[in-house]
Amino acid sequence: MRQLSKFEGLALLLGGLLMVVGAGANVLFCSWAPYVFAPGSLLFVAMQLRQRYEGKDFTIRRLRRIQIISDFLFLVAGLLMLANQKNFLGLDQLSYIRYVHNNWVVVLLVAAVLQLYTSHRIANELEKDTK
Fold it and tell me: Is 3 left (phi over 0), alpha (psi -120 to 50) or beta?
């Protein structure tokens, strides 16, 4: 895996921290929470996409693809969080409740579980590869 520079590592950490603060604040009904979560998710995903794997190991490549799907889900969670704040998608009330209202929680949970699984497995596979 390509290692991030110090600045990129700090940006990744800041993005993750903004995501946690935004999600926690949204649970506490703070109106500014989506505006913290969305830039945090953009920063986190951008820095994570800068990490590349140039090796030939099929397992790490598969895990990396799953990690990219997780990154996409983080962005969708941010969009749904913003849409939950204001119905800017132009949906009627029934469609809004069915497809948007608080569904960011489910998407964020799936993304977080995938991220946790892939980051742990990639670290183990890279360690096994160096031995």
Answer: beta
Tokens matching residue 69? 């799907």
Beta-carbon contacts of 125 under 8 Å, excluding residues fewer than 6 positions away, are 57, 59, 60, 63
- Both tokens of 9, joined, read 């590592």
Cβ 23 vs Cβ 38: under 8 Å: no
Q: Give the Cα separation of 83 and 78 in Å (integer).
A: 9
CA distances 33 to 9, 74, 81, Å, are: 23, 15, 9
SS3 content of the chain, % helix, strand, coil (to 5): 80, 0, 20
Q: What is the pLDDT of residue 94?
A: 82
Q: How confident is the chain (131 residues) per 10-residue block, as mean pLDDT?
A: 89 96 93 95 95 89 96 95 76 78 91 96 90 79
pLDDT (0 to 100) of residue 90: 73
Residue 102, sorted as left (phi over 0), alpha (psi -120 to 50) or beta, turns out to be left
